[in-house]
Specification:
140 residues, single chain, 71% helix, mainly alpha, globular, 5 helices
């Protein structure tokens, strides 16, 4: 079965993929600009092995950028990205932070629309244009 998309659907999917890639690329850039600061932020949240986890986060986010730019393995990448984004929301901006800084609640809440978009992308795939066709059976 061949999916057909209108021009606006094709454009919307490509723009969404670019937005997801850009969001994760910004995170990667900040990590690579100062991996020590990222490790410090992770340590301040109480996680062990902060430098190792900072590198793991940078590698994961790099892989997510590649998946969104190419469309390859987009469904599993988007699912992993959604779980990762929700985890980040709770780990770094969760309820324990709200009493001391109400802006943290806004930061926490911003993770959920992002996760919802990633889940939507996981369901609908990379689209039919500029997408490497690899991934789970029946879905790239």
């Amino acid at each position: 079965m061949v999916e057909t998309q209108s021009t606006w659907q094709t454009a919307a999917i490509l723009i969404a993929r670019l937005i997801f890639a850009a969001m994760f690329a910004m995170g990667v850039a900040f990590k690579f600009m100062d991996m020590g600061a990222t490790a410090g932020y992770i340590a301040a949240a109480g996680f062990p092995f902060p430098l190792f986890l900072a590198w793991c986060a940078a590698i994961l986010e790099t892989l997510l950028v590649i998946a969104f730019l190419t469309g390859a393995l987009l469904t599993p990448a988007a699912l992993i990205g959604a779980v990762y984004v929700v985890f980040l929301g709770f780990a770094f901006h969760g309820p324990s932070h709200w009493a001391s800084d109400q802006a943290e609640f806004g930061a926490f809440m911003s993770h959920f629309p992002f996760a919802a978009g990633l889940l939507f992308a996981a369901v609908h795939g990379p689209g039919s244009v500029l997408a490497v066709r690899q991934g789970w059976p029946g879905r790239a």
